[in-house]
Write a structure and sequence with these properties.
globular; 0% strand; mainly alpha
């Protein structure tokens, strides 16, 4: 994690010094930022899983995942503010490395490295070794992991599309209503970025906290409560998204109200999804599971959704002569993809609910067997036999 964060700091800072004649180098630096981020974001939740169990783990995961929407929201605010104050977008990329240095120091000084599964085995840990291909085969047979990963992908698609296009969508809506002047190269109203960023921060905190509280409340009463809460959050956001899409042309305040509700419902899922992965996957394979889930979620989710919506909007806008009203309408129609993806995400989490109780018990059994004092070959054989039985 320390190495990954160090790479992230160097590349994030370096990309802010790239001039327009070296655009290829900017792309390279931003790609390396992603590599550095991935190398520690895949491991951090698994360390939480090794340190805590049960309700305490849910609380710590809640605290950890609050900072995803908080960071995203603050990115809009600080990025817009710094760029506006300095008159240079490069400075917007130089703010986050300052916080990254603080994080790096905290990792070096405070972060422990417990044995895998320490909390679940009273400090003993799970020592069973396996190859990467064996890990992948195990995860592909874990139905709860597969379906929840598809749900995470749908959520990433929605949040990525909204994060990229919603400020532009709101700005175009206000231009058509005469509330803002049209954007020019020299000047463009960035107030929507500030407001949307603030809404993202508040809804992120509230949504993660509410989702975690609901999970703790229902877990003792309903065994598959976690994926059901995620499904309810995804499906509940769909009516809100429809109102956002069609109310923007009429009332901006109403639009912001329903953005608020939609983001709260989507943010219910962040900490719960992480918790699901930690208790349906055995400790020695959690980092691989995190890596695969993050890769699939980004690759099929928020990496492509902004481009897809932009491509649809461009295709629609070319059917008529360009005008502010039609530019806004074309983006509005492209946003209709989002409710459809939300329905898919809800169905994916409902499918997770069918298998999660069985997969959770199987993971607990494997941990119990692999943590017993046995000869190395016997322990491995026992775990492979249990995996075969479960498959």
């Amino acid at each position: 994690m320390i190495g990954g964060l160090a790479v992230w700091l160097v590349t994030a800072t370096g990309s802010s010094f790239v001039t327009s004649s070296y655009f290829w180098f900017l792309v390279l630096m931003r790609a390396l930022v992603g590599i550095g981020e991935a190398s520690y974001s895949t491991i951090a939740p698994t360390i939480i899983g090794d340190l805590f169990t049960g309700t305490k783990r849910s609380l710590i995961i809640c605290a950890f995942y609050i900072f995803i929407p908080v960071g995203s929201g603050l990115g809009y605010i600080t990025g817009s503010s710094v760029a506006a104050l300095t008159g240079d977008w490069h400075w917007a990329l130089r703010v986050t490395p300052i916080l990254g240095v603080v994080g790096l120091l905290l990792l070096v000084i405070l972060c422990p490295n417990p044995p895998r599964g320490a909390a679940e085995t009273h400090g003993q840990g799970v020592s069973t070794q396996s190859t990467y291909s064996e890990d992948v085969k195990y995860l592909l047979k874990n139905k709860s992991f597969v379906w929840s990963t598809l749900g995470v992908t749908a959520l990433a698609f929605l949040t990525g599309a909204m994060a990229f296009w919603m400020p532009t969508f709101l700005s175009r809506a206000q231009i058509t209503q005469g509330l803002q002047p049209p954007c020019t190269i020299e000047k463009c109203d960035t107030s929507d970025s500030y407001i949307f960023g603030a809404v993202t921060v508040v809804t992120g905190i509230l949504g993660v906290c509410i989702g975690s509280a609901l999970s703790r409340w229902f877990r003792g009463k309903v065994e598959n409560a976690d994926p059901l809460i995620c499904a309810a959050g995804m499906l509940g956001s769909i009516p809100c998204l429809f109102v956002v899409i069609f109310a923007a042309a009429v009332s901006i305040p109403t639009t912001y109200v329903f953005i608020f509700f939609a983001e709260i419902l989507l943010s219910l899922n962040w900490s719960i999804m992480a918790d699901i992965l930690l208790y349906v996957v055995i400790p020695t394979r959690r980092a691989t599971a995190e890596a695969l889930q993050i890769t699939v979620g980004h690759l099929l989710g928020d990496a492509g959704s902004p481009y897809l919506l932009g491509a649809i909007s461009d295709a629609i806008s070319r059917t008529k002569a360009e005008s502010p009203d039609w530019t806004f309408s074309s983006l509005k129609y492209s946003f209709l993809v989002c409710p459809f993806v939300g329905v898919l995400g809800g169905l994916f989490f409902l499918m997770t609910a069918f298998y999660i109780t069985k997969d959770r018990k199987a993971a607990q059994q494997l941990v119990a067997e692999s943590s017993q004092p046995q000869q190395g070959s016997t322990a491995t054989s026992s775990m492979e036999l249990s995996s075969a039985k479960e498959a």
